[in-house]
């Protein structure tokens, strides 16, 4: 597919060079070659060329759904105060991306409910470059979760048998549906970053001898680390690189209806420091280790692991879930360990009482805006796709929603609020972008905001969330430039502009010719 783009890529480069040459020639043309103008006809010097701001809107009443609006002209900034002040010279974390989990349920729906042509179009919509949604992060489950057709791990044996050498390890359960769909995603977006998490070790490793509940036997801690490494290697053989592993999904939670395995911070630190960390160290490509993978409500848990001198050198970052606590705990841990990355690896919407008025505002404001302001380099929603009955699932959440809903009978695809919330970021904030400084207006004004600078073309991206029930005019200042926009009631807006005129041409050419083949490093 890369070779097929080469002619258009070369043409794009040609036009970029041509535009640059014409611009330079005009600006540097000798004075003697310009037509003489009588002094009385001389016009006042022209002011600087100011960029225009491209706008996309979504509203909670669904009248706007990531809709392109007329562009807004910028003016020179004055001494008048502005609601939002952006300083692009102050940069924070770089962005890896946005996406959703390809659970067994999601993969089964996409692979079995949709025809090949429909699935191909949908996958390009989700993973393709803008105007596609440009998803470039994904979460996979190592073995089953509650969103699987049945319980399984990757080394299941008859009751009472053990396999410390993992001679029976296999990924056969994933071959019919999951692996082909992930491979299709990677074919569309080769830069896809995949985070993988287990819900349980095989029963023969556990105190309960059951996939529900029970802790990992200390005897098998080394074998469990080997189990995770085997997973990385098996998926790599299928052409699926694993960007990061977590040791255990939600290690403080032990439900009675689906797979789980409580794991203390002491156990996690011991496994990482003695076994998993050394086994992954020095491998290329490198698979990262993310600690915690549970709610904001217990920052003391990842802090304990990051405080362990044996485990800490091997931990690359902390993974968070959204179901309990405050996003600001991400900042608490980041300030204690600024060298460690932050990711949000799970958050689900659902048909529960709190979502009766929709979830566009909550997910954009609380998860994406505040999450990235609190140092998240990536945000991964839970199920990518579920059916009209919130499944298929086996235990666990009976009301969860996917980013999209696929009707299991007709194959009709519905795009949920989460689709548009994520799209306001994933389509515009490109891998390698950096979050830049903007004043926090959420608590004081009910106007959440976060700003980024794309490193590919220098464009600035501002996402605003107006949670108020009335429209309001918002003023924005950045780098000596200013614009105003009237935000509809209960709305989300993404605003994109290039401080340099040539940058806008570059962005338009890139949109026309396709994504950059070698994206910036986002290590």
Describe this structure as you would to a colleague.
The structure is a single chain. With 523 residues, this protein is α/β, with parallel strands linked by helices. The protein has helices at residues 6-27, 104-112, 116-127, 178-188, 221-237, 265-280, 300-306, 328-336, 360-373, 417-426, 442-445, 501-513; strands at residues 52-59, 67-73, 75-76, 84-94, 97-101, 137-142, 193-198, 244-246, 288-295, 317-321, 341-346, 349-350, 376-383, 385-386, 400-401, 404-406, 413-415, 434-438, 447-453, 460-466, 472-478, 481-487, 491-497. Strands 2-1-23-20-19-18-4-21-22-3 form a ten-stranded mixed beta sheet. Strand 8 (244-246), helix 6 (265-280) and strand 9 form a beta-alpha-beta unit. The chain is globular, with a radius of gyration of 25 Å.
- Characterize the largest beta sheet: strand count, sense, and whether it forms a barrel: 10 strands, mixed
Strand order of the largest sheet: 2-1-23-20-19-18-4-21-22-3
Radius of gyration: 25 Å
Estimate the mean pLDDT confidence: 90
Number of strands: 23
CA(first)-CA(last) distance: 25 Å
Approximate shape: globular
The helix content, as a percent range, equals: 25-40%
Query: Helices and strands: which structural class?
Result: alpha/beta
- Give unreliable regions as ranges: 1-14, 20-41, 515-522
- How many helices? 12
Strand content: 15-25%
